[in-house]
Structures are given as C-alpha cells and as structure tokens.
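Researcher: Good morning. I'm working through a list of sequences from a screen, and I'd like to move beyond sequence-only analysis. For each chain I'm collecting a predicted structure so we can compare shapes side by side. This is the next one on the list. No need for commentary yet; just the structure.
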Amino acid sequence: MKKIIAMLLSLVLLLGCAAGSAEEAAEKYNFGTVRVNGEFTLKGTVPEGYRVVPFMQNDEALLCSMVTEDPAKPQMVLSVAYDETYAGVVRINDLDDEALMILEKTFTDTDPYANITYDETAHGTRLLVCRTVADSYDYLSIFSIYAGYFIEFVMTPGKQAPEQKLTEDEIAMGNAFLSDLDFIAGAEEEALKIEGKTFDVSITGFDAAAKTVDLTLLVPYTLLEWDVISVKEGDTIRIGTEDVLIETLAYEGYDAIINDEYFLRKNEDGLYTAVTYNDYPIMKEAAQLTLTVPDGMVYLEGVDPEAGSPLEENREMTAEDFFAALAAEEKDGIGFDQLNVNATFDENGELKQIHRYYVPWQ
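Model: Good morning. Structure tokens for this chain:
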C-alpha cells in the first residue's frame, strides 16, 4: 500500500501545477469520508491562499492536492489510505522501534538521500518526518497512522521557490495542518443549529390545544467536490432522493450542468449546491421537530387562502391565526408542505415567525 501511495503522490504533484485559481477557506474543509475499519470524516483547515483539488476518493482511501497560484509557494498533497496489516494500530504512537524501522525502510529503500526524524502534532500524535534535500530537489513527507489508515502529507518547493528549497516556516505549516486535521467518527453530520436562523420547512402536524406544531426543517442538498468532478456522461449521480443518469454534462467555470436540468454550484466552503433549471434549490430533510408556538409568534400570510394567489403585501397575523390557517388547510388546498413556508427562530431557538408565501405549483 505504501508504494502505491508514493506513486499516486508523485502523479498528483506533477498534475498540481496545472490547477486554477486559489480560494481562501473560511472554515474547516470536508475532505471526505472513508469507511473501512470504522467510518471517519476528515476535516481540516486549508492553508491560506490554497484550494483543494480532489484526485481520488473511495471507501478506503482519498487523495487530494492543495494548490495555489503563487509559483513561489510549495505544492502540497494529502493522502489517506487504509492498510489492513495495520488494522489494529490506533495511532503510530502504539508502534515499537522495530515496527517503526519497517516504516522507515519504505522511505530509505527508495531514496538514498532520505533523512528520517520524528516530531509530534500539537495533540501529541507522533509524526515520522522524511526530508530529502538533494542538489536538484527538496522533498518533505510527514507520515502518521490512525485507526489503520496511513496519513501522509507531502510538500515540495514551488517552481519559482528560491533555490528550490523549503523554508522552516513552510515545514512548520505541514505540522500545523496535520495537527488540525480531524478524524470525525461517522459520516460528517454536524449538529443542526437553529438559533437566529431561518429555514424552509414543511408543517406535518399540529395540536392547537397544546400549542405545538410539527416541523420538518429543510436545507439545500450539497455534494462534495469529488462527487462532482469525478463523474462523466453515462455515470449515475445521487441528487436529492434521485439517482440521476448523466446524459449530458457541461461546465460553466466550476459549476456543473447535468442534463440541462440540474445545476451544481460551488460554494465558498468547497461544497456544491444542487438547484433545478428554474433556480429552485433541491432540498433535503435536516431535522424533524415538535415545537411550542409562543403566543407572541408572528404569522406572515403571503397567500390569499380563497384564491390561492399571492397577496400584494404580507398580512401580519397572530399565533392564533396560524392555528386557524392550519385547521383550514384541507378546505383551502394551499397547504404548508409544498416548500412554501419558512420558519425563523430567535436567539434562544424559539419560533419567532412563520411565513407562508406563494409558489407557482400550489
């Protein structure tokens, strides 16, 4: 496995120089999920001025480069790959000297200039550091093991780096990157925060006497960058609840257009949001909640309940009016479950406002 990783790393470093413009990462980037010997999502902070270019991802491995437009800055590659012979190794710290010597030989047997030292992350995880400094090249590999996965971070000088050498600050950046790399157990599902936010919702039930309402909170359906750039015509891609056969595939910048029907738009966080041809986002369920409706909640009605047409101005109504509208739903035929409702929460997570608005399909 180690030799396969080395070959792939070399290929990615060769391809990395052809990548496009850089983006700043405002928060931790989701590199993807691996699913052998447990399920782990990898998230980390992309160095400033770099963007991630995924190269390979499957259940047991992922490989990506981090590239920049600045030719003086180093090229960087991250690889994570499961090795069944290390399945019982929780951290590289658990290995004895003999086992570490075996790992060292995977570097020194292929590079006579390799110099092996050891360091550790800010959290105390041991790092095997392979540094090669020759007349014609400078190469840094920082290697570790977690839960049977080989983790390797490779850095080489940029094409216009002074004397084609890595600086101590650049080497420290590699250590900082690995210190900040999170292996999160399970697929990446962060706790949903509702405080101070507005969500599209479906209202699936209510109890006027108890003053409660059943809400399904919806969020835009997103895909990882690798899920988008790795597909081609003839493949199938999961969008929302559908497996979509890709008959045509076109690109506008970083955005992908599938079958002239689905538009996958890249966000600042590196994810892709799926929207339909008429610019409506494809939504997915984020949470199902039963909430108390405060007496002071504002109900904004944007639809004429008799004609089913949009009102010129929203009517500001009360929580009592809201329950009356829910009770009249079957007669009116407008509904509260057709992507025509949003809910706003206050800073304490209590319902502040419900707004029903006109949509063409109601």
